Amino acid sequence: MRSPDVDGWHRLHPLSPIVRGGRDTITVAFLLLISLLGARGSSSHLIVEIGIGVVPVVLLFVSWLVTRWRIDGDDLRIELGVLRRQSLRFPLSQVQAIDVVRPGLARIFGVAELRLRTAGSSGAVARLAYLTAHEVEPLRVRLLALAEGARKHEVPPEPEAAIEEHVLTTVPTGRLIASILISNVGILAEVVLIGVIVIAIFSPAAAAGVISAGALWIFTTLTLVWRRFNQEYRLSLAEAPDGLRLRSGLIALSAETIRPGRVQAVRMVEPLLWRPLGWCRLEVDLAGKQRSKGEGQAERRPLRTVLPVGSRALAEELLERIVPDRPRVQSPPPRRVLWKSPLRFHMLAWGRSETCVATTSGRIRRVTVWAPLEKVQSLRRVQGPFQRRLRLATVHVDTAGHSVHAAIRDRDVSEADRALAELSELARAERRAKRR
Amino acid sequence: MSVEEAKSENWLRPSPRLLVLRRLEVAALTLVALIVMGIAASIGREAIWLACLGGTLLLGLGMERFASRRYHSWGYAEREDDLLVRRGVMFSRLSVVPYGRMQFIDVSAGPLERSFRLATVRMHTAAAASDARIPGLDRAEAARLRDRLAEVGEAQAAGL
């Protein structure tokens, strides 16, 4: 019934409501168990409690019953809802990335979620939660093949059982832990923990107060650290014909596929404490809305970490794959920028090649952005009052990604004007080359 | 483009009625403030209130100056492959929006704009940051611009 080779309507896995409920399911079951054990004798209470437990289950079952999906030509169609029936249609040619996500509970039940991120202005995400683990992989390959075919208006190539992929890098766990310990989140967590411990040593009574008052804070910080560790644990980047593949996760596993040519911009982040170690972080930005409704914390990022932590040389190697022909030399701004941006003056730089523009900024957190000119949506030249006094201007390079922004900051007016003209000319050439 | 080149472009401006509208807005605001101050001055009968009255008048004149400079800073030029939009007095901005990148164009007119037969044309690209808006266009000009942009946009459309 759920074989992906037959193009009919398919249902999701029957256990998916339970998995989707996640922690809530566990909590409800636990509470129900307690009340069942506790409430002996009074049968009317028992009925009410069972009712409270049963109603959501029935609702979830109904929602599972009315949800179905199929592949219809170049579209993926999903139908759901009882009162407000929705029929969603996702054109596969617009797919930016396909992710396979398996939270802890899903792994126990042997199911996985398939998530398609499309580029529409609404940034819609098609979610198939959940499918049996073994049918997800062929479906993913098939959807990607269809997406390629839909883009080229060709007959989709036959999905091969296993497309060979070439693993580029895997992050060593030791280095990941070290990097998180000296990252901003990590330091925050350490400060909180040390603070609590110090207070506990000097006055245990006060510590209890602090912990109970700041429980939410402490919990949030620890969750942030944990989430980061969990997401980036053994993150490996592989190159396959159908795109870049990212796999990671300790408890919740995720496998993401970024289609070739869908990267809007790449950025390299070098926080202050990482710089002495020569470490950096690489993230790629995809098209799509930053947040869409019904997405959890973990999913609301078109920004994908390609390399959570790595040496500069490794980053260069990966960059070579993601943005070939990127500018090597970056020119510094004029001296008088020291008046306007004394702190980041030493980091400001920009460069361009025929196909790509690169900018660097940030004193404490040095961020280098590469934006392929083929992806440029618009260019802006902005001059503030202080900049006008100093005869400086900033040129912004807008791409469809929402988290990474390339800005050529504080250049001499003539240089900014020239950059604006050259970049719009080059971007036009790139667009034309692509259209042909 | 260099400054000279940018100057040589065939810059078009919003309708002069936009300036009238902006001036009326400033005048209305100043008038209300003046009336409030005038009432206060007639009740208080102190020199400070008269000074406030004068200050309000000066502020109103300054706002008029600013509104008029801001009106004159607006401009747009249709080039072969892209649209240039410039604006801003304090922060001067120049946007280059390629026709091929336009996702959709919307023409809107608020109640005030409508009574002056004006409309605002806004171009949207896939980037949230790109900001190309031309306010206060004559209704006919807005329709012409919309049709022209839609036409060239379709001819040059590029994917993401």
Map the helices and strands:
The complex is a heterodimer of chains A (436) and B (160).
Chain A: E1 10-11, H1 16-21, H2 23-38, H3 43-66, E2 68-72, E3 75-80, E4 86-91, E5 95-102, H4 104-109, E6 111-118, E7 125-132, H5 133-152, E8 166-170, H6 173-181, H7 184-202, H8 204-213, H9 215-232, E9 236-240, E10 243-248, E11 253-258, E12 263-271, E13 279-286, E14 303-311, H10 312-322, H11 337-340, E15 349-352, E16 356-361, E17 365-372, E18 376-383, H12 385-389, E19 392-399, E20 406-412, H13 413-435
Antiparallel strand pairs in A: 1-2, 2-3, 3-4, 5-6, 5-11, 6-7, 8-9, 9-10, 10-11, 12-13, 12-17, 13-14, 15-16, 16-17, 18-19, 19-20
Helix pairs in contact in A: 2-3, 7-8, 7-9
Chain B: H1 3-8, H2 16-44, H3 47-73, E1 75-78, E2 82-87, E3 92-98, E4 102-108, H4 111-115, E5 118-125, E6 132-138, H5 139-156
Antiparallel strand pairs in B: 1-2, 2-3, 4-5, 5-6
Helix pairs in contact in B: 2-3
Description of the molecule:
The complex is a heterodimer of chains A (436) and B (160). Chain A is of the alpha+beta class. Helix content of chain A is 39%, strand content 30%. Chain A folds into three domains: 10-153, PH-domain like (Roll); 172-232, no CATH class; 261-435, no CATH class. A seven-stranded antiparallel β-sheet of chain A has the order 7-6-5-11-10-9-8. Chain A has a six-stranded antiparallel β-sheet with strand order 14-13-12-17-16-15. With 160 residues, chain B is α+β, with helices and mostly antiparallel strands. Chain B folds into two domains: 3-13 and 75-156, PH-domain like, CATH 2.30.29; 16-71. Chain B is built from five helices and six strands, in the order αααββββαββα. In chain B, the strands form two sheets. In chain B, strands 1-2-3 form a three-stranded antiparallel β-sheet. A three-stranded antiparallel β-sheet of chain B has the order 4-5-6. In chain B, helix 2 packs antiparallel against helix 3 (47-73). Chain B is elongated, with a radius of gyration of 20 Å. The model of chain B has no long low-confidence stretch (mean pLDDT 87). The A-B interface holds A 94, 96, 119, 121, 262, 264, 287, 375-385, 388, 396, 398-400, 402, 405, 413-414, 417-418, 420-421, 424, 427-428, 431, 434-435 and B 1-3, 5-6, 81-82, 90-98, 100-101, 103, 124-132, 156, 158-160. Strand 18 (376-383) of chain A pairs antiparallel with strand 3 (92-98) of chain B, so a sheet runs across the interface.
